[in-house]
Structures are given as C-alpha cells and as structure tokens.
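Subject line: Sequence and fold of a protein, written as structure tokens
Area: Proteins and the way their chains fold up in space.
Start of record: The labelled sequence and token lines come straight after this line.
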Amino acid sequence: MKVQDIMTANVVCISDGASIKDAHQLMQSRGVRHLPVISEVDGTLVGLLTHKKMVATVIGLLNRYGSGALERRERYTPLAELMETDFTPLTSTTPLTEVVDYFVNNKLGCLPVIDSNRKVLGIITSSDFVKLCAQLLKHA
C-alpha cells in the first residue's frame, strides 16, 4: 500500500504570513488538528503546525501574559515562530511500510504529502494508520 491509499486530500493549509490567532481560528472553524504551512510567494510547503504545538504555545502565552493579553499576543505572534520545519514530506507513492516507522519513532502525528513542485497534495496522520489497522482487523 502507498500513502495515496490512506492520505486525506484537499487539506486545509495556512499561509506562512499568518499569525497564531489566524491558525487558532482556522483550526477551530475547520475542525482540523494539523495545518501544512505554505509560502505566500509560491504556494510551496514551508512548514507544519500541529495542534499539540498550538496548545503548548497558547498555554505558554496565557501563563506568561495572562488572559487579558492572550488575544493580542496571538494576533501579533507570527506562525513562523512555532511551525515545525524539521520533517521530511512524503510523496503520494511512498510505501506505507516506510511511513509507519516514522510515526513509531518521531514526535509529529502527521506528515504532509507533496508533489514534485512541493505543492501540498494531502496529509497523512497517525489516526489514518489506526483506521487502516481497524479495517484490516475487521477483515482478518
């Protein structure tokens, strides 16, 4: 099986010029936990924002500045300050046997899927593997 067999296509992405507040609102309104971050200049993948990192950042801002200043701090903190950049994006034809090792051994719960021009095609999450496992177990 390949990444394309279980990835989510039509992924919600966010611009690298966005603020933490923009990302927070987008995650809430669209019900997503992971946001590939794309360049405003050419639309290529430049980073990844995870729910885990977002929550940790918001709690840190809250503890440091208090609830009264939280919204202002979120609005003026660039997304680039907390997005992950240390990951290897996948291609749609990457075998799942290669990807499963990544999820077992790394902290990120998702990886973006890109084409040869670094444009986002989809995303694959650890939850996608759990769903696949459930399907396989039902048919075993």
About this structure: The two ends are 17 Å apart (CA to CA). Residues 72 and 87 are 30 Å apart (CA to CA). Residues 51-65 form the longest helix (15 residues). Helices lie at 20-30, 51-65, 67-76, 96-105, 126-138.
